[in-house]
Dephospho-CoA kinase (Pseudomonas flexibilis), 207 residues
Amino acid sequence: MKPWILGLTGGIGSGKSAAAAHFIQLGIDLVNADQAARWVVEPGRPALAQIADHFGADILQADGSLDRAALRARIFQDAGERRWLERLLHPLIRQEIIEVLARATSPYAILESPLLIESGQSQLCQRVLVIDVPEAVQISRTVSRDGNDEAQVRAIMAAQASREERLAKADDVIVNDRDLAWLQQEVERLHRFYLTLRGGQPQCTNL
């Protein structure tokens, strides 16, 4: 039976990657949209040449690969540039995701994406799980984890859907404001529930 698709999302610093890792440990096939985004801009892929033509050769590293830090700095300073990049990459990323999900063999499969709502990738999913934390926790976790300053973290958050927008699209929510063991317990609880679903929805029974 073809697996149904769970969309997994959350803002930066929410812990969605830790949740995704535990779903994988439980045997669930997963495609990471960020990884798909890296695949479509690898050297030799057409998207990379278009990015270099648009932003200039200084967006490339010496080995010809994309300088992600330089690109990130450019697009978060200019919303117009960010929109140009999204128009180029989102259709390519979507196709990459579809191809990977088509090879999934677990009872359900997961699309993990920080931009699940904003990019329209949620349309590929039958159900959405949001890993949620207060914004102050997002900022403190990301600053300590990545070494970014608070202003850069806030700029990244501003480019993502708001907490309210994500929660409005959620079928399931984990509020990840405790420790990793608790998060893993919540993932296991939802996993057991998801195994009972068909097409991402509970089955009706005729009484």
Q: What stands out?
A: DSSP finds nine helices and five strands in the chain. The mean pLDDT is 93. The longest helix spans residues 79-101.
